[in-house]
Write a structure and sequence with these properties.
The complex is a heterodimer of chains A (338) and B (409). Chain A has 338 residues and is mainly α. Chain A has helices spanning 3-10, 26-38, 45-71, 78-96, 100-122, 128-145, 151-154, 175-199, 201-211, 213-218, 223-249, 259-272, 279-297, 302-316, 320-337, and strands at residues 160-161, 251-252. The chains are: A mainly alpha (338), B alpha/beta (409).
């Protein structure tokens, strides 16, 4: 186990996350779901667009969370899989006129494959070395997309413009609102599947690898297979998020998928709470809205303000949204007693 | 005083209407983002991220409109300039532009920077019929009024600049052996295409070598050695500042003296010519459309005097050698002119119409003789440049103002 992992897992009060603590209770889940369904009915299209992006980045953070929180592997290369997913969707939609909904499973499968293959050699690396290898992938991706022989498909530096889909069956919804509900449905599906995955036998195997690789292999877990599978699943979900992102933004270009995106996703995961799946959406909110707040405070120093805010979060609540949720729960229990 | 102001507003409106259409006589009509007291202008520019050096353009424009407002605004209306950071990321650009349009409700989006960001927002703005005014990129595709009637460029396109070099070569050195060094991206490829188009079928045989480099390479010395081996007598340097400086320096170190032409983006005396060494840069050619803020020859130029006064008062401490300050001032002045021409008819359609009816307009910062002209079929405001030669420690203009309009494909 590497130093970086120990920083996360050895900090006080972070015992390995028990599987039940990875999700929200039914009551809370329903309240969050209701809020996500009803809010768009009362806000402007722009806010709906932001909420769509919130879900999309939430999915990407969730994918990283399965990898890091679930199997204990690090990745700074999620932006590369996000880009592959986005380009798969964009190319299928624009060059082959495939329906947007059908492009998403394709993006997922392509990215699963890419992640699985990348995971094979990367297996020999652990902790920070794996993080570095994926970092290299993220750095290379924007340049690979500009390669001459791919340019016919990717549009090179100019990128590809994607047409936004209308609501089907003549539903009286705006494009933004339809896309939001479509994204919400996909997100709920993936969230439920991820929760079930981590609760299943495979999930237990992943977590045992995270907690102690040697013990896990002594117990008969095929460490190599499960580690690559975790990588593949994470890449697949990131790819679907990328595909949705391409449809929502209506444009893909190499400059949209730089290392900055990978680091943002990483920040989102830490702020949301490593290994706590519902935290993904909180982390996603952090990486979307906090830069805007920082910019509002100071234009010239927006980066510095963002840094200070991030520092405060890490300093005050090192386990992110999960810690806040726990504190809230304890407070609620105290109030009930009184 | 209020009476006087109103008369001024009225007469300005009357003049504008008479020039423009003759309709809606002094009648006030507004779209979202304009009112009796205010005009809301939206802008996105990278204040953070890899291209944050361009942030100075946004700051200059904000300062320019502060000055306009201090002087009473445009036709009595204050300009509310709202500028956001897009970090040079297309998804962020879409988010910020939608915020400007749907939440801040601006009248127009002005001078958004970067080819990827502008491509990302072009379809959205055109479908909403919101002007994407004077985009800050040198790609050729913005001059396409037929397909994108709500998008208009500002600066000369890279292709038209390259055509000017090609035309000059055909005339002055018809039997030259030309080597082209270009950056392997849209910027470099646009220059390459412009050069080839300009040379045409007759001049195509003049090009003996095309050599490209990646922006990630630490140094391009090996490329220069390779080019020298082919023994051309003209070297076209379509490179960004760091690489342009390296090229000029390396050719001198090799004791090789071809005729060198460097792209307009790399003409800064401070960041290209000085690092390359003034001795090495003697005789290098280029073309320009704007004055250089650090060039002594404009000290007594009335336009640049105004620019200097503006900087001293509204951006004290700014680095005057930065070309972004000249650029932002010129672009902002063009927008102010268009809004002034709109008079009391501040609809988006009229803003677009006025932006496409600029006749011989000359911002303070453009070279003498370079004029902004647009029409319903010409959405490339600046398409003139003048050749210049580096001598001593500054550029010397020579020859005539050359025009190089290139329509979009």
């Amino acid at each position: 186990m590497s130093a970086a992992e120990e920083v996360v897992t050895e900090a006080p009060a972070v015992e390995a996350v028990p599987k039940r603590a990875m999700t929200l209770g039914y009551g809370t889940s329903l309240v969050v779901l209701a809020a996500l369904i009803l809010t768009p009915l009362f806000v402007k299209n722009f806010i709906i667009f932001q909420m769509t992006m919130l879900l999309i980045y939430g999915l990407a953070v969730l994918a990283l969370n399965i990898l890091t929180g679930g199997s204990g592997q690090f990745s700074l290369g999620q932006s590369a899989f996000y880009a592959i997913g986005a380009y798969t969707t964009a190319i299928l939609m624009e060059h082959f006129n495939v329906n947007y909904a059908l492009t998403l499973p394709v993006a997922g499968v392509v990215c699963f494959g890419a992640g699985f293959l990348f995971g094979q050699p990367a297996l020999r690396l652990s902790g920070i070395y794996l993080a570095l290898a994926t970092f290299a992938l993220a750095l290379a991706m924007p340049q690979l997309l500009k390669l001459g022989f791919l340019e016919h498909w990717t549009g090179g530096v100019q990128g590809l413009v994607v047409t936004k889909p209308d609501a089907p069956f003549g539903l009286p919804l705006s494009q933004d609102m339809w896309l939001y509900y479509f994204t919400l449905a996909v997100s709920i599906g993936i969230y439920v599947a991820s929760v079930n995955l981590l609760r299943s036998r495979s999930g237990r195997a992943l977590m045992s690898i995270r907690d102690n690789e040697i013990a896990a292999s002594a117990m008969g877990v095929n460490v190599a297979l499960y580690k690559t599978l975790a990588f593949g699943v994470s890449a697949g979900i990131t790819g679907i998020a990328g595909g949705l992102g391409a449809i929502a933004v209506q444009f893909v270009a190499p400059d949209g998928y730089t290392i900055t995106l990978a680091i943002s996703l990483f920040v989102g995961m830490v702020v949301g709470g490593v290994g706590w799946l519902p935290g993904s959406i909180v982390g996603s909110a952090f990486i979307i809205f906090v830069p805007n707040i920082a910019e509002g405070i100071s234009k010239g120093l927006s980066g510095a303000v963002f840094g200070v805010l991030l520092f405060l979060v890490i300093y005050l609540v090192p386990h992110g949204a999960r810690q806040v949720a726990l504190i809230a729960q304890q407070l609620a229990a105290k109030l009930k007693k009184n | 005083m209020p009476f006087k102001l109103r008369t001024a507003v009225l007469s300005a409106a009357v003049v504008a209407c008479a020039v423009a259409s003759g309709s809606a006589f002094a009648q006030k009509t507004y779209d979202t983002g304009a009112s009796d007291t205010e005009i809301k202008i939206g802008n996105i520019i990278p204040y953070s991220g890899p291209a944050s050096a361009y942030g100075s353009i946004g700051k200059t424009e904000a300062a320019y409109f502060r000055m306009i407002n201090d002087r009473g605004g445009i036709n009595g209306r204050k300009v509310n300039f709202i500028t956001y950071d897009d970090a040079y990321s297309p998804p962020k650009a879409v988010e910020q532009v939608r915020k400007l349009v749907e939440s801040d409700e601006v009248l127009v989006v002005f001078n958004p920077l970067g080819t990827p960001s502008n491509t990302a927002i072009q379809k959205y703005l055109n479908s909403k019929k919101i002007p994407q005014l004077f985009v800050a990129t040198g790609a050729t595709k913005w001059n396409d009024p037929k397909n994108f009637p709500w998008t208009i460029g500002w600066q000369p396109s890279y292709q038209s600049e390259a055509q000017i070099y090609a035309k000059w070569l055909m005339k002055e050195k018809p039997d030259a052996k030309v080597a082209i060094l270009y950056q392997n991206d849209d910027f470099g490829k646009d220059y390459l295409k412009g050069t080839k188009d300009g040379l045409g079928a007759k001049g195509a045989s003049m090009i003996i070598l095309e050599e490209s480099y990646e922006i990630s390479e630490p140094t391009i010395d090996s490329h220069i050695v390779k080019i020298k081996a082919a023994n051309p007598d003209v070297l076209l340097i379509y490179a960004t500042p760091k690489f342009a400086a390296q090229t000029i320096k390396k050719t001198a170190e090799l004791g090789w003296k071809p005729l060198q032409i460097v792209a307009n983006v790399s003409i800064s005396v401070g960041s290209v010519m000085q690092p390359a060494g003034f001795d090495n840069a003697q005789g290098v050619l280029s073309a320009a459309y704007a004055k250089d803020g650090s060039d002594q020859q404009w000290n007594n130029d009335p336009g640049m005097k105004k620019w200097n006064e503006f900087l001293d008062k509204y951006m004290p401490g700014a680095d005057k050698t930065e070309s972004a300050l000249v650029y932002g001032y010129g672009a902002a002045q063009t927008l102010a002119k268009v809004l002034e021409m709109c008079g009391d008819n501040l609809t988006r359609a009229n803003v677009m119409k006025q932006a496409a009816s600029l006749k011989d307009f000359t911002p303070d910062t453009l070279l003498p003789g370079v004029k902004i002209n647009t029409s319903a079929t010409d959405f490339a405001p600046i398409s003139q440049l003048q050749m210049m030669r580096f001598k001593g420690q500054k550029w010397e203009l020579f020859g005539e103002i050359i025009s190089g309009d290139v329509p979009a494909d």
